[in-house]
Design brief:
The protein is built from nine helices and five strands. It is α+β, with helices and mostly antiparallel strands. The protein has a domain of 89 residues: Roll (Structural Genomics Hypothetical 15.5 Kd Protein In mrcA-pckA Intergenic Region, Chain A), CATH 3.10.290.10.
Length: 209
Amino acid sequence: MARYIGSVCRICRRENLKLFLKGDRCYSDKCAFDRRGYAPGQHGQRRRGKMSDYGIQLREKQKVKRMYGLSENQFRLFFVKADRKKGITGSNLLISFERRLDNVVYRFGFVNSRAQGRHFTKHGHFQVNGKTVDIPSYQVKAGDVITVCDKSQNVKFIEDALEAVARREIPQWIELEKDNKKGFIKALPVREDITMPIQEQLIVELYSK
């Protein structure tokens, strides 16, 4: 499956929003978005032209897709499932992204970014209810217990990420036992728990055409 392997800082600059794709660096003065808050490329500093309605919708979809590190096919599949569920399609979509295991371990602070969460999950560093799960898209449920595997308890990347977790606010729907490298899913997330500026209705309009 194709993955973007270029500079992730360019993504934040393209979307004109800090997406925290590079972990702890995003909180430092080395953050490229803070230093060069304009679009990448030769003409990036030119005034942004007025976009069409389609362009606005597309940029919103691209922003969310890149924030959660999904491919186009994955994103569309999540949308189809969200549209089939009861409730508001846009909210269902964002909540399903939040429930992904690679996002959850990032929210707990076991890793510095969702990309790192996807990588570590694939290599079997985390357990759900005592069983190793190596599927980044695994959907957690209320009552699940997420732990770092015994073999990974002393992995430096995980220890360093937990030391920096204070910089990120842990959502109310989860609870972290930092010393035990254990997290609890207290309840499923709701739309209000997602604080990034996202207009999910634009995504719904895009896919409804």
